């Protein structure tokens, strides 16, 4: 909890009037047309510089040569099956990354489309795990203005014309359009989930225009936040003496990015809906049997606004009106023929042919008058299919059904409800935006980093079991198929409790928990062998018992370059955003991992780092991720190392469980996941080889820093383990499990003494207890366990002066000795004040880790250090003088600004800073009692624990009967 005095900040660091004239701002200040004071800003004529990707040193390349060869072989093997490997450093995008991103469109989990700050629609993430980064240049907004009886005319695409792909103006495609916007007097303002583009006298000197982009990302709203739609509200102000006829045009291609239009079979059709909503549907037939997508492009007709459409135009002029002819019609008339609404469906496209559609909205704006014109985009792809055959219904189908034509209802509701969405968004954001204690850069960066929950490849299902794709599973018995119903034809219900996997668990739950899908899918797996290993248990669809409201199941990628769902060691940092804004989703994810802990998958996997083989998922081990091509059924897509030997995953699971338990006060959640907590803790006994209560690392990168080797006891993993012991003991006490409360407290006492004795050097905790050249390095993340301890309202792990001393050391060395604190916190520094060059990860600045370190500083009253540390990420990643990583924040960068892994999950950890500033009510109001002091260790327990020899045994996975739980808060 931080103090109430003024934080380190610069007031008005991004004043709007430096980007837009004050007069224009005042004129547009009605109906939401003016951008807010706190927003990220860019001029439209700003250069979109190409980004610099990291490269390894010669020595690093030599060390990783054998890994590279194995990875190359694995990537090729996956490609032979038509799949993309989860990590593929060899295949580069056709479109090189540039500093051109902006706020993405739509809600969460239904596919996403990003929009660059200059107006281009790009980064198409409709099919899970696949991202087409190139912009579709036919997708544009344009304007046509006519004054003084037609003697004055202006026309332009509302985007600068210096885009790649635009050819000579003489052709019949989009290059023939008027690309007259220089962008010099136009600006972009971003405050996720909204963005404003202000055209201050471009292209008409007497016309002020604001385009406001709104998407339904609304905290705690588990319905509208799942909708694949976005609204574009145009505010027009005529400052001239003449009446102006203004026609706005939205054009859209029948494409989901890249060369998807080449498959053919796509068609368009016009529609007229209720409340003046009308537009065009674009039906897209995807490749490789992926579910189809239907776009709806529409505008809202009012008493002052007239809407017309051109259902189809092409680029070449063959078979359809050409793009040039379409443009000339608008330039001459300002609208299309109203008879086009009765045109019906177009002829399906031929392979290689790109179909486009146009929607026009025309209005008259009186001298010194104002007008609003509203467009909307929606896309309906009700089913999400993964590459190994499982298909699910998306979350929004709970409310709109599974027909692709629900795009009409989606776009209608967007056009009629967007003002209500904005009210909720402002109610959420205003308390933070108006908090004068906070730095300006922090306010808008906090919200804008949430872009990842839309653009990070998120999938949000309705929570029901999947259908099986018989083509992907040729041995599947169709008579046993658990086929899904739609909204109108409901499937046979699935019982609410989670899938139990062992005989003992099934007996304890009266055999009520195994879904039909798990039984069918498992019957296949029992017959399969892989490398001599037989699958002894069914692969489950982890059906979570979510309490009174099933909010569905949620996936988000580690990053668009690391295609693994819900990567747990990274979710440890990112999860603060979900816990704060969508806590039911966070608990659903935690239930998935709790169920996964108790599950074993004995299929054989080859680990690429050393070439050894092992089982895919060990019982008691927390999975690294929920999979790639068959999430929930085939976990641990990561195969560089054997993550069952990682030392951070299990403690991170326990810490997140306790934090969520404490923050939500959900006792039922605590009872449900407690068996998994015990199993995860007991599993770690095998890594305490000398019986001192503290786990040891094994001389390889066995934690989230998976290229940074650790020897013996480590500050990072050892600290996480200490925190997990305290959290587990406290949770056991609160749930009435006295045996485990005593057991974990005793271990904590022993481990704490060893940890401090072996690692504390007087000013910080050494990187590890080994004798390597970097064992005394200063790791920025060394107090990650204490960070979670403080975030959960638990007693500090160490004396306060040690915590603050270590954090101050990190601030002085890892932060301020790296470009004066303008880059964030370097992962490793030597005691001499140089960046640790042991490996590529030790020398990197990790964005999410920097935010986490800043949050930890704030939790311990170090406001100046905390905000200075976090500001380095803003300066390097988001400011005009930085590297151009806005809305694509990478995992990390080097001291010379070379990035690694764009669009990454971990930077969501900025919400840990907000969590530190405003802790949950349940933690703030919790009794100020040290529950660890209430745990009394009996002499019998002390003797029993001390006499236990450390054995490598399977974890204790017993489930506790409900009678064992007695709440003691």
Report on the architecture of this protein.
With 969 residues, the protein is of the alpha+beta class. Helix content is 29%, strand content 17%. The chain contains 24 helices and 32 strands. It has a nine-stranded antiparallel beta sheet. Strands 5-4-10-15-14 form a five-stranded antiparallel beta sheet, with helices on one face. A three-stranded antiparallel beta sheet has the order 17-18-20, with no helix packed on it. β4 (140-147) and β5 form a beta hairpin. α11 runs antiparallel to α12 (583-597). The protein is globular. The protein starts with 21 loop residues before the first helix and ends in a 22-residue tail after the last helix.
Beta-strand fraction estimate: 15-25%
The unreliable regions are: 1-12, 472-547, 948-969
Rounded mean pLDDT score: 87
Q: Describe the oligomeric state of these chains in a short phrase.
A: single chain
Count of helix runs: 24
Q: What strand order characterises the main sheet? A: 1-6-7-8-9-16-13-12-11
Task: Give Rg in angstroms.
Answer: 29 Å
SSE class:
alpha+beta
Write down how many β-strands occur, each being a DSSP E stretch of 2 or more residues: 32
Shape: globular
Profile the largest sheet. 9 strands, antiparallel
Report helical residue fraction: 25-40%
First-last Cα distance: 21 Å
Function: Non-lysosomal glucosylceramidase that catalyzes the hydrolysis of glucosylceramide (GlcCer) to free glucose and ceramide.
InterPro entries: 6-hairpin_glycosidase_sf, 6hp_glycosidase-like_sf, B_Glucosidase_GBA2-typ, GH116_catalytic, GH116_N, Non-lysos_glucosylceramidase
EC number: 3.2.1.45
GO molecular function, one term: glucosylceramidase activity
């Amino acid at each position: 909890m931080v103090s109430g005095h003024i934080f380190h900040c610069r007031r008005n660091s991004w004043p709007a009037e430096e980007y837009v004239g004050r007069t224009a701002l005042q004129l547009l200040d009605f109906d939401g047309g003016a951008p807010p004071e706190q927003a990220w800003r860019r001029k439209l004529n700003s250069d979109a510089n190409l980004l610099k990707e990291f490269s390894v040193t010669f020595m690093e390349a030599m060390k990783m040569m054998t890994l590279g060869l194995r990875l190359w072989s694995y990537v090729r093997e996956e490609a032979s099956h038509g799949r993309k490997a989860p990590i593929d450093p060899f295949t580069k995008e056709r479109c090189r990354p540039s500093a051109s991103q902006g706020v993405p469109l739509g809600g969460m989990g239904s596919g996403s489309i990003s929009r660059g700050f200059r107006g281009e629609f790009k980064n198409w993430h409709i099919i899970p795990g696949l991202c087409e980064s190139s912009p579709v240049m036919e997708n544009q907004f344009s304007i046509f203005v006519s004054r003084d009886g037609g003697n004055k005319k202006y026309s332009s695409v509302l985007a600068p014309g210096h885009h790649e792909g635009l050819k000579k103006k003489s052709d019949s495609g989009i290059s023939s359009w008027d690309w007259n916007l220089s962008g010099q007097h136009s600006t972009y303002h971003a405050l996720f989930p909204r963005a404003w583009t202000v055209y201050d006298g471009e292209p008409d000197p007497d016309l002020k225009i604001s385009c406001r982009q709104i998407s339904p990302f609304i905290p705690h709203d588990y319905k509208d936040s799942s909708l694949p739609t976005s609204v574009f509200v145009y505010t027009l102000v005529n400052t001239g003496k003449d009446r102006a006829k203004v026609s706005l045009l939205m054009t859209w291609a029948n494409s989901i990015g890249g060369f998807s239009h080449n498959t053919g079979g796509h068609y368009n059709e016009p529609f007229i809906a209720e409340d003046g909503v009308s537009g065009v549907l674009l039906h897209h037939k995807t490749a490789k049997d992926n579910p189809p997508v239907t776009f709806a492009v529409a505008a809202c007709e009012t008493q002052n606004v007239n809407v017309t459409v051109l259902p189809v135009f092409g680029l070449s002029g063959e078979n359809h009106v050409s793009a040039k002819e379409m443009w000339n019609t608008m330039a001459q008339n300002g609208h299309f023929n109203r008879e086009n609404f009765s045109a019906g469906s177009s002829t399906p496209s031929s392979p290689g042919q790109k179909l486009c559609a146009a929607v026009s909205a025309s209005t008259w704006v009186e001298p010194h008058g104002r007008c609003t014109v509203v467009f909307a985009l929606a896309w309906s792809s009700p089913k999400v299919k993964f590459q190994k055959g499982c298909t699910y219904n998306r979350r929004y189908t709970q409310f709109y059904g599974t027909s692709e034509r629900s795009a009409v209802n989606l776009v209608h509701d967007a056009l009629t409800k967007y003002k209500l969405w904005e009210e909720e968004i402002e109610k959420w954001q205003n308390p933070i935006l108006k908090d004068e204690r906070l730095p300006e850069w922090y306010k808008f960066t906090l919200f804008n980093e949430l872009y990842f929950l839309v653009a990070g490849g998120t999938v949000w299902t309705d929570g029901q079991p999947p259908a099986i794709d018989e083509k992907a599973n040729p041995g599947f018995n169709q008579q046993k198929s658990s086929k899904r119903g739609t909204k109108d034809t409901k499937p046979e219900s699935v019982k609410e409790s989670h899938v139990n996997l062992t005989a003992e668990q099934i007996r304890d739950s009266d055999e009520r928990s195994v879904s039909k899908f798990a039984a069918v899918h498992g019957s296949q797996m029992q017959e399969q062998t892989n490398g001599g290993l037989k699958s002894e248990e069914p692969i489950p669809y982890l059906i979570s018992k979510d309490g009174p409201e099933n909010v569905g199941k949620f996936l988000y990628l580690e990053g668009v370059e690391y295609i693994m769902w819900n990567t747990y060691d990274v979710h440890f940092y990112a999860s603060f955003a979900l816990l704060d804004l969508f806590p039911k989703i966070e608990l659903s994810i935690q239930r998935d991992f709790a169920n996964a802990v108790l599950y074993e998958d004995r299929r054989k996997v080859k680990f690429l780092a050393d070439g050894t083989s092992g089982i895919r998922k060990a019982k008691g081990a927390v999975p690294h991720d929920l999979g790639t091509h068959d999430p929930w059924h085939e976990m641990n897509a990561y195969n560089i190392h054997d993550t069952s030997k990682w030392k951070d995953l299990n403690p991170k699971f326990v810490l997140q469980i306790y934090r969520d338990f404490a923050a939500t006060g959900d006792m039922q959640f605590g009872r449900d996941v407690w068996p998994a907590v015990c199993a995860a803790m007991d599993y770690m006994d095998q890594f305490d080889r000398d019986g001192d209560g503290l786990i040891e690392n094994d001389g390889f990168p066995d934690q989230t820093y998976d290229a940074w080797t650790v020897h013996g006891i480590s500050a990072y993993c050892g600290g996480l383990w200490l925190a997990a012991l305290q959290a587990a003991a406290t949770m056991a006490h609160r749930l009435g499990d006295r045996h485990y409360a005593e057991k974990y407290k005793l271990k904590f006492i022993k481990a704490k003494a060893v940890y401090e004795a072996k690692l504390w050097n007087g000013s910080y905790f050494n990187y590890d207890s080994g004798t390597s050249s970097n064992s005394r390095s200063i790791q920025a993340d060394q107090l990650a366990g204490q960070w979670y301890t403080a975030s959960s309202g638990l007693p500090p792990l160490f004396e306060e002066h040690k915590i603050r001393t270590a954090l101050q050391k990190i601030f002085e060395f890892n932060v301020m000795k790296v470009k004066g604190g303008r880059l964030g916190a370097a992962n490793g520094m030597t005691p001499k004040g140089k960046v640790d060059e042991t490996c590529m990860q030790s020398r990197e600045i990790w964005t999410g880790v920097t935010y986490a370190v800043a949050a930890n500083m704030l939790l311990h009253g170090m406001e100046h250090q905390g905000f200075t540390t976090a500001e380095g990420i803003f300066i390097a990643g988001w400011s005009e003088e930085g590297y151009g990583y806005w809305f694509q924040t990478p995992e990390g960068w080097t001291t010379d600004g070379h990035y690694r892994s764009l669009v990454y999950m971990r930077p969501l950890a900025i919400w840990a800073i907000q969590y530190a500033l405003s802790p949950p009510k349940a933690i703030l109001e919790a009794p100020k009692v040290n529950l660890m002091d209430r745990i009394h260790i009996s002499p019998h327990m002390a003797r029993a624990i001390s006499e236990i020899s450390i054995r490598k045994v399977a974890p204790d996975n017993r489930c506790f009967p409900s009678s064992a739980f007695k709440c003691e808060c």
